[in-house]
Amino acid sequence: MYTHHILLVLHLLAATIWVGGHLVLAIGFLPKALKHTDFSYIAKFEKTYEPIGMPSLFILVITGIWLAYDYGATFSTWLHFNTPIEKVVSLKLSFLLTSICFAISAQTRVLPQLRKGNLKKLPEMAFHIICVTLLGVLMVIFGSLVRIGGL
Fold it and tell me: pLDDT per residue over 88-121, tens digit each?
């Protein structure tokens, strides 16, 4: 019982850092970067946030998997959408995989161009940031449904 509660608290704290950081980026830094056509707003945020954001994502994934197992949604039932908890876990995994795709795209295609000074990529970066932020918020919302038995 205590193990589950500790996992849940760690998961919630990591989600606070991960999703909160993306909300700060999307609402606080991104509008300034777009208004001034200046990538440095995003670059400064990234440099500060990444050392705490990436470990929080790692903690989210580990605790999320562990919590899924605690609720009976094991690897063999992921993406089956059969039970209310499986639906939540499957959707959260889908959101995570989509976020990873956005991250790979940003790291391999968009950010290298922005770092070279190609500011035409700034709107594309904004799209990536907004999508990953919305996916994070959706993960929080769907995660909260576990409290009431799932979806």
Answer: 999 999 999 999 999 999 999 999 999 999 999 9
CA atoms within 13 A on the CB side of 144: 6
Q: Which residue has the tokens 């993960």?
A: 139
Please report which helix (H) or strand (E) contains residue 9, including its range: helix 2-24
Neighbours of 133 (CB within 10 A): 20
Q: Which of 140, 130, 135 is nearest to 106 (CA)?
A: 130
Q: Are 105 and 97 spatial neighbours (Cβ–Cβ below 8 Å)?
A: no
**Beta carbons of 89 and 11 less than 8 angstroms apart:** no
pTM tops 0.90: yes
Residue 116 phi/psi, 5-degree rounding, is -85, -5
CB neighbour class for 15 (10 Å; exposed up to 12, middle 13-18, buried from 19): buried
Around 80, how many Cα atoms within 13 Å sit in the side-chain half-sphere? 12
* The residue count for the chain: 151
∠ CA(47), CA(54), CA(36), 5° rounding?
35
